[in-house]
Amino acid sequence: MTGFVFDVNVMVSALLFNDSIPGRAFIRALDQGRILVSGALMEELSRVLGRDRFDRYVTREERDVFLGSLMRESDLITITETVRVCRDPKDDKVLEAAINGKATFIVTGDADLLVLNPFREMEIVTPAQFLQVTAAKAEEGKTHE
Questions:
Q1: Are 129 and 21 a contacting pair, CB within 8 Å?
Q2: Is 74 helix (H, G, I), strand (E, B) or coil?
């Protein structure tokens, strides 16, 4: 099964604005494979979603429901191989989740990650690029049926 790693900022955008490009990319990933997360990514997501500035967009209860759903709908990846390759060391946890989960795509808006594309045969793309590539692959699959 195809696995996708989303960086925390894209997941936050997907929650806050579910009809946005990040929101649509997140839904597409759920439809076409599995979301891969690590404990470190979930901790960061929980910390970020706990910020008061998000109160005007979604309630704390909605954020908690999102976190719970994400845990149920995703694969929690155990990190056995660590890396230190990103120019922003905080982004290495995204790469680690992708490597250890054997992801096909990393979806991010972070230039520090995007500059590494491709990384170990994984595509590192923006949410808009992810939507384009997966739509093209879905069309390609239909023509081969």
A1: no
A2: strand
**What is the reported pTM?**
0.92
Distances (CA, A) of 52 to 48, 49, 60, 76: 9, 8, 9, 27
Q: What is the largest CA-CA distance in the chain?
A: 49
Buried residues in 62-81 as b, exposed as e (16+ CB within 10 A): ebeebbeebeeebeebebee
Contact 109, 126 (CB under 8 A): yes
Write the single-letter amino acid at 121. E
CATH-assigned architecture of domain 3-143: 3-Layer(aba) Sandwich (3.40)
Which pLDDT tens digit goes with each residue over 54-103? 999 899 999 999 999 999 999 999 999 999 999 999 999 999 999 999 99
